[in-house]
Structure formats: structure tokens, C-alpha cells
Amino acid sequence: MRYLLEPFGSPFMQRALAEALLLGAVAAVVSVFVVLRRLSFVADVLTHTVFPGVVIGFVVAGTSGIVWGASVFAVLSTVLITVLAGRSRVTEDASMAIVLTGFFAVGVVLVSRQTSFTSDLTAFLFGRILTVDRQQLVVTAVIGAAVLLLLGLLGKELLFRAFDPAGAEARGYRVLALDLVLNLVVALVVVAAVRAVGTVLVIALLVVPGAAGRLLSDRLAGITLIAVGTALLAGWLGLVASWQASVNHGLRLASGATVVLVLVLLYGVAAAIATARKVRA
Amino acid sequence: MSEPTGPVLLRFDHASLAYGRARVVEDVHGSVHGGEAVALIGPNGAGKSTLLRAVLGLVDVVSGRIEVLGSTPARARREVAYVPQVDTLDAQFPVSVGQVVLMGRYRDVGWLRRPGVRDRALADDALEAVGLAERKDDRFGTLSGGQRQRVLLARAIAQQPRLLLLDEPFNGVDAVSQQALLAALRRLQDDGAAVVVSTHDLALAHLACDEVCLLNKHQVAFGPTEATLTPELLRAAYGGQALELAGDSVIVAR
């Protein structure tokens, strides 16, 4: 147990832990909807389309501009993607891929004009969870609260739409509006995660916990609980692993990526349990 | 068969429907009273589903009119229930039978709020009405196709509709579930609701429906079941797909 708590003696590790747990829990709840709606690819697209916003925010206003730039692009790309998903002459995945790469390229071109090109790019893509400050924690908490509030208020409508879109439409729900809300929620999580785990790794937080929950439970409540538990465990163990590796073994592991790695390992455990259950049944 | 005594709940006034510029159904004309059941019969692609969607206000009426509960389709939607084909739904979706039925209450519960005691009671009663009360906590996908169709009907009943639309509810449904569906529909009619059901099953239309609308991109006939399900009219609706067998019975190849 000492081994597992030892890393969190210093304030920067405590902040990193708080950020990882906060972000993990919120993203896990969202991931349940991502898995139910089969939105993994859309979530992936959103993680990339927020990227140019991050860069522009940083170029215009420095570190504090990142959240604002990301937010603007989150809203813009959410609308674009939701509309494209409904009515596309090209197949949906093709038009999505075009949006993904187009936006992402804009971000890379902009960041390549910076003198500190490589280090900036790395930070935006993979995050720096160990340098998270108090202000960033507040931003994550506020966005997280907004996301949970939206899901709490519109959860039953989003569930209806996910289960039976034709039935929901027949009941007078605007399916496009509901899709817009859910995509926006996904984009908000990306914005909250930019500083800590970066725009690329956040996709793991938005997909893996819900997928693990789905493997182990047939109930919405059960899936959500397992998803949140998995994400919290991954945040904690991932930070422990990266700290212990660097302090005791001289191995420098990127903390955000280690958290994601642990998350994927936990998914493997869930898959093994699910398979074992099936074999026994 | 009961005489139509209820008010007119659904009126087609030479209605033609279109998706964008493509006209899909032409000139439907007739009316449905409270307490009545109407079968929508025609070959695949005849426009049956389109007509149902138009009654919900989801398809444009390009000429003529559709009047629902004395109002426009979109405005009447709150009191109109729609039962989709069960095989359009994901059987793996992690939702319980009780949750599905409760969805019928969501619109009346309203945004931002949770279903209350009364909503849960209505959902329980509806599930009872289709004979599946004991399966409430089971996952939707673990039920048979016929049972899932009954759950969807229960969801519609929980909505307390005055007009009920069903899209091919008897496809691949076992005998027990078919009886349960018919009994539940009968009870709704006794309470004054009107039922419109699209189906391929002529025997079932004979058995359960007062009126028939024969459709093949345009209306072939709309009238009392006995007078409408005749070999001549069926041949007109199904074209070469209808084969005549001994006397006046007709078998329709799908």
C-alpha cells in the first residue's frame, strides 16, 4: 500500500492525481454514451479537430488561451460533424476522415511556425499531466460539472435516441439536436483533457472505460459504475507506475501515456473476465 | 366487428406524399374513426411506412391534406403512438424491458425531469396488458422477437395514445405473441383509440381490422374489409404477384 501512496507526497503529484481522477470519472461517464451510440470514430475525429483551436489559442494568448481556442473549435467542429453525419453524398466515414485530417493539418502547420515547435507539439498532442496547476484543475472541474449536468438533465432522451432513433423521432424529439448535444459533450471532454493528456490520448478515456463496462455488464448502471471505476483505477495506478519507474528505476515514462496504457491493460483484464464467463456458461 | 361510433381521428383528404422531389404515395383518401382498426396492405415499397411517417408529420404532404385528431400531424403527435418494426432495434443494447416501456412516458415527463410514480404505474399496467409483467427486469434483447414486439406495443400503450400506428407488427411473431398483441390492440380500441397497422397478412387483416387501405404507390381502395380484400382489388394492388386460388381466396407472394 505504501508503494501505491508514496508518489503523492509532493503537491505536483497530488494535483496530477486530482486531475487524472476528475478527468477520468467525467470521461468515463461520457464513454458509456460513446459506446452505446457507437461514436468512437466521431470522438476520434473531435479529438483532432479541437487541435488547431489549441494551437491558435496558445499563439494568441499563451497557455491561458488554450482552453478558449479549444472551446471555439470544439463548438465549430461539433456542428460541422453532426451535420455531416446526417447528410453526406460521400460515405460518412470518408467525409469525417477529410474533416479530421484537414483540421489536424491546420493545427500542425500553425504549430510548425513556432520556434519551440517540437516541444509544443508534444505537449498539445500528449499533454503534461505533471505540470497541471490549480487553475487547470478548476477548469477541468467546471467543464466536468457542465458535462455531468448536461448528461443528468438529458440522459433519458439521449438513451431513448440511442436505443430507438425512429421511435424517438416519432415522439417528436429532434434527433439532430440530441446528437449535437452528445457530440458537444464529447468535445467538451476533449477541451478539459487538452493540458493533462493531450488531444490524441483523450480518445482512450472516451472509449475504453465504457467498452470495459459493456464487456462486464448488461445494465446501464452497472456499465457506468465499472467504467468510472476502471478510469479511476487507471489514473491512480498509471501515475504510480510512472513515478516509481522514474524515481526507483531511472526509467522516464510519460505519465499521461502510462495512464492510458494502464487503462488499456485493465480493458484486457475485463476482456479476459468476460471470456472466462462465457466459457463457463 | 363493431360499427364505427367514435369521432373521426384520422382523415386523409386526397393526400400525396413526397421525399424531397420524389413523390412516393399518391392520392390517399379516407377516414378512420375512434374504436376502429385499419389495415394498410400492399407490396413491399408500396409506401406503407411512408404513409405512417406522414401521419406522424415526418414526411411532407405535397398536395391534399392529412388531418390527425382534428389538427395537423405535427401538432397531434403527442397523442399518436408509433410502434416500429422490432428488428430495426439493436438486440444487444443494454436496456431492460421496464426501461423500454418507460420510454413511452418520457415525452409527457418532459425535459430535465425523471419519471414519477404515476409514470411507473402506467408503464407497469402497459406491460401487464401485453402479458409480460414478469419479464420487467430482463434485458430487452433476451426476449423472443414476438415478445420484444409486445414490449414495444406496451411502450406505445404507456403513452396513452388516441391513435396508434404499427409498422409490420406481426412479422415473424409466434402464435402466442400474436394473440397477446391482438388482445391488447382490441382493448385499446374498446377504450376509443384508433389503430392503423401495416401488414402483409391478409388473414390477420380479415380477423382483426374493420377497414383496409390497399396501397401500391397510389391508393387502390379504402373501405370495409370484406368489400376491399377482393381478388380483383388485390390483383390491382399486387399486380402479377397475386395468384388466384380456388374461388375467391387469394394468395399473395411477397
Polypeptide structure, described:
The complex is a heterodimer of chains A (281) and B (254). Chain A is mainly alpha-helical and 281 residues long. Chain A has a single domain (2-280), classed as ABC transporter involved in vitamin B12 uptake, BtuC, CATH 1.10.3470.10. Chain A contains twelve helices and no strands. Chain A has helices at residues 2-5, 11-36, 40-49, 51-61, 66-86, 92-111, 117-126, 134-163, 165-170, 175-216, 220-249, 255-280. In chain A, helix 2 (11-36) runs antiparallel to helix 11. Chain A starts with a helix and ends with a helix. The relative contact order of chain A is 0.17. Chain B has 254 residues and is of the alpha/beta class. Chain B contains ten helices and eleven strands. Chain B has helices at residues 48-55, 73-76, 97-102, 106-109, 117-129, 145-158, 175-190, 202-208, 225-228, 231-238, and strands at 8-19, 22-33, 37-41, 60-68, 80-83, 163-167, 194-199, 211-216, 218-224, 242-244, 250-252. In chain B, the strands form three sheets. A six-stranded mixed beta sheet of chain B has the order 5-6-7-3-8-9, with helices on both faces. In chain B, strands 2-1-4 form a three-stranded antiparallel beta sheet. In chain B, strands 10-11 form a two-stranded antiparallel ribbon. In chain B, helix 6 (145-158) packs parallel to helix 7. Chain B is globular and about 50 Å long. The model of chain B has no long low-confidence stretch (mean pLDDT 88). The A-B interface holds A 36, 153-154, 156-157, 159-160, 162-164, 166-167, 169-173, 214, 217-220, 223 and B 53, 56, 58, 74, 77-78, 80, 82, 84, 88-90, 93-96, 99-100, 103, 106-107, 109, 111-112, 114-115, 139, 152, 155.
